[in-house]
């Protein structure tokens, strides 16, 4: 593996750990870290673990697992045109999960949070009102990127995890995204990031395939 690729992969893994640190920093410092699989911190940590393990295998530093890898890597009949869709997620970890699919190559935008500044108060009620103006600018920047990429797409897909508060707030902006983009918007909620398969996502997108 080339040094440049190792550096790129390590940078991506570190970004996921920084996301996890950010989620923890937003909580109560003295509280016990009682995490479940659906917590954003857990998802970012698990994703970093899997990517780091894969990197070590490719560098021949550890022996690969012998367990089956599920649907990733299998030949799948893609019955949708990936070019019709723009996938919008809140965090890099979920985006990278979709990027692992070899047969379904989708354009994606990561927002870093909800698409309306007022919802950031729901995530962290201690955010001062004075900070909302800066958050508003960041949200508008993410929205501008979304709208630019959506110009040549037929459907915008809001992709999130069931039970995740931030993803639920992203879904609440479904009508706003549709109004500002002029495109149909599909909210796709999956049970877990690690459990999301390529075949499942293809099936969900097939139901939203627009007529040509």
Could you estimate the helical fraction of the residues in percent? 40-55%
Mean pLDDT value: 83
Structural class given helices, strands, pairing? alpha/beta
Largest sheet: 4 strands, parallel
Give the low-confidence spans.
Answer: 66-74
State the helix count.
Answer: 8
Number of strands: 4
Shape: globular
Please give the alpha-carbon distance between the first and last residues. Answer: 42 Å
Q: What oligomerization state is this entry in? A: single chain
Q: How are the strands ordered across the major sheet?
A: 2-1-3-4
The share of residues in extended strands comes to 5-15%
Q: Radius of gyration from the CA trace?
A: 18 Å
Q: What is the chain-wise order of helices and strands? A: HHEHEHHEHHEH
Could you provide a short overview of the structure?
With 212 residues, this protein is α/β, with parallel strands linked by helices.
Provide the fold topology.
Elements: H1 3-25, H2 40-58, E1 85-89, H3 92-99, E2 107-110, H4 120-123, H5 132-150, E3 155-161, H6 165-171, H7 174-181, E4 185-190, H8 198-206
Parallel strand pairs: 1-2, 1-3, 3-4
Characterise this structure.
There is one protein chain. This protein has 212 residues and is of the alpha/beta class. Helices cover 46% and strands 10% of the residues. It has 8 helices and 4 strands. The protein has helices at 3-25, 40-58, 92-99, 120-123, 132-150, 165-171, 174-181, 198-206; strands at residues 85-89, 107-110, 155-161, 185-190. The radius of gyration is 18 Å and the shape is globular. The protein starts with a helix and ends in a 6-residue tail after the last helix. The relative contact order is 0.14.
């Amino acid at each position: 593996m080339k040094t440049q690729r190792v550096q790129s992969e390590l940078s991506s893994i570190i970004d996921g750990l920084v996301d996890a640190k950010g989620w923890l920093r937003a909580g109560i410092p003295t509280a016990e870290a009682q995490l479940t699989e659906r917590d954003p911190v857990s998802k970012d940590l698990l994703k970093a673990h899997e990517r780091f393990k894969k990197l070590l295998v490719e560098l021949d530093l550890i022996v690969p697992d012998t367990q089956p890898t599920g649907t990733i890597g299998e030949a799948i009949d893609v019955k949708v045109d990936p070019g019709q869709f723009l996938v919008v997620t809140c965090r890099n970890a979920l985006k990278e999960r979709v990027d692992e699919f070899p047969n379904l190559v989708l354009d994606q935008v990561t927002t870093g949070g909800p698409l309306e500044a007022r919802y950031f108060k729901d995530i962290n009620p201690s955010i001062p009102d004075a900070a909302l103006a800066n958050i508003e600018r960041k949200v508008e920047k993410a929205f501008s990127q979304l709208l630019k990429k959506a110009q040549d797409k037929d459907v915008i897909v809001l992709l999130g995890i069931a039970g995740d508060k931030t993803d639920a707030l992203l879904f609440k902006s479904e009508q706003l995204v549709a109004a500002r983009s002029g495109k149909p918007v599909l909210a796709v909620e999956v049970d877990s990031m690690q459990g999301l398969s390529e075949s499942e996502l293809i099936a969900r997108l097939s139901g939203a395939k627009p007529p040509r």
